[in-house]
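Example 3.2
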Amino acid sequence: MEKTKFNFLYDPRVLAFKIYVDVDMGQVTLRGVVDSLKAKRSAEMDARHTAGVRWVKNYLKVRPANPLPDLQLEENVRNALQRDNLLERYEFTVSVINHLSVRSPGTLAMSSEEKKID
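Structure, written as tokens:
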């Protein structure tokens, strides 16, 4: 356990004082709060690259230091859904209220040419 915590101290992407590490038989469990997804992934990779670690459970929560306004979050979620090739044929309604994203179930949007093929 000390080796894993030691690795966090030298990784500038990870704030060690916010991460709680439990080790049992080579299984590392990470809990706590970090300020970015990058920090969460980095903490997991630091733990995985520690000698003797066989398995990592990453329960770290991401809470940005400077959260975006709801309208910006709404736009970011909508843009992410539009960029996803698997979802491009669906239409979503996205709204963000108090930093919580609400998406309606997608409905299939077919072009007139796709309808002719069917």
